Amino acid sequence: MKKKLAKRVLAAGLAGLLGAGCLAGCSGGEAEKESASEESGGKIELRYATGDSGPAVEVQEEIVKAFNESQDEIEVKLETYGTAFDQKLAAAIGSKNAPDIVKMWNFPAYYESLVPLQDYIDTLEDKDDFYETLFNYADMNDNIYGMPIGFSTRAIYYNKDLTDAAGITVEDGWTMDDLKEYAKATTNGDVTGMYFYYNPDPYAFETQLWCNGGGWLEDDGTPVINSEANKEVIQYFHDMLYEDKSAYASNRNDDFGQAMGSGNYAFGESGKWFIESVKDAGVNLAIATMPAFDGGESMSVVHASFLSVTTDCKNQDAAWEFMKFYTSYDSVKTLCEIEMPVRQSVADDMGYLDDEQIAPFYEMLERSTSERPSLVKSAQWPEISAEIDAGLEAIFAEEDADIGAILDEVQSKAEGIIQ
């Protein structure tokens, strides 16, 4: 694993790179540009918008402040959109007054309003320090539209007290058959073996499909929703719910951390976000890599966030300088307060790769380099996902659901969407 521990700094000759012709602001009308230039003492003014709130904003403010103090050419101002992020960003794009830089993940919805960054990324001397898998999640039509700043893969949470009591030892390389047997063995009285959802998120559920060689869309965007591989996976979890009665079906909006923290469930599948809350509840928590189906591979989708530049930005070189600073070794280390490090060097230096509860999420990242999620395979993913969402709920909310017929119907609707 490569280690690049030197602090990333702004490129030498920044003023020359940006040029005198770039000293107007990056967005808004001419009067607004002149006003912004005066207010910032002649500096290039950039707007950076995030949908975060609370402590996450405080960390971003720290990085923005450090960048502004590190040089004299550029001034970045942080805009916090909170839960209204999509509404505000769409309105800003529509009025040609979008922020210059945005914290982004939903590339199907926004990529046409974003700047391809491949040429910039290729100039990074330490590009290999970033986990390769992450770039797959900002790739639309063979163009990369974001620099990764945080992520979580998915893995299995389990209550070690419950598995120990059942004589179970979970080992890396375990299988979905093992999970099914372990869920049965730990279902007893008030304890249910597996915490699951009757309305699983289609994006997250693709993890399970990949572990059986399936997926929602082909690489060219063709729907394969009713494939045999997908049917096998969905039947597997349906059987756990209704035949084995070793899984509990909750609503995906319920608090996973609270559920696993209750001590009433032996296993649950999620991202890294709930580790502290489960531990704080007093559960003897362990994390395992994803089990694979027979003939499949242990893989995971990635929940990743990025920095992107909007096409309204008039000074893309300046925006890139900020993005380089934001993804530098020191900044990524600062982001550890709210994000899993996207740099291998930081993850290693922070001890995450040796942490029994964090390392499995990095292992899943390494295992999943070859896959791109259906999210970035089609610009119509939001509409297709909505149909899959309804289909999954129809299947898992009913004991006598006709899985094949429901998936065939969703497949037909998806084909109609892409025509």
Oligomeric organization of the protein chains: single chain
Q: State which percent range the strand residues make up.
A: 5-15%
Amino- and carboxy-terminal Cα gap: 44 Å
Helix content: 40-55%
Low confidence ranges: 1-39
Rg of Cα set: 23 Å
Q: Count of DSSP E strands?
A: 12
Structural class: alpha/beta
Mean pLDDT across all residues, rounded?
Answer: 91
Sheet with the most strands, sense and barrel status: 5 strands, mixed
Describe what this molecule looks like in 3D:
Mean pLDDT is 91; it is low at 1-39. Helix 18 (381-396) packs antiparallel against helix 19 (403-418). The radius of gyration is 23 Å and the shape is globular. It is of the alpha/beta class. Helix content is 41%, strand content 14%.
Keywords for this structure?
single chain, 419 residues, alpha/beta, 5-stranded mixed β-sheet, 19 helices, 14% strand, disordered N terminus
Short description:
The protein has 419 residues and is α/β, with parallel strands linked by helices. 41% of the residues lie in helices and 14% in strands.
What is this structure's SSE topology?
Blueprint: H1 14-18, H2 30-39, E1 44-50, H3 55-70, E2 74-80, H4 85-94, E3 101-104, H5 107-110, H6 118-121, H7 132-135, E4 139-140, E5 143-144, E6 147-152, E7 155-159, H8 160-165, H9 176-186, E8 192-197, H10 202-210, H11 228-242, E9 247-250, H12 256-261, E10 265-270, H13 275-280, E11 285-288, E12 303-309, H14 316-326, H15 329-334, H16 344-349, H17 359-367, H18 381-396, H19 403-418
Parallel strand pairs: 1-2, 1-3, 8-9, 8-10
Antiparallel strand pairs: 3-12, 4-5, 6-12, 7-10, 7-11
Helix pairs in contact: 18-19
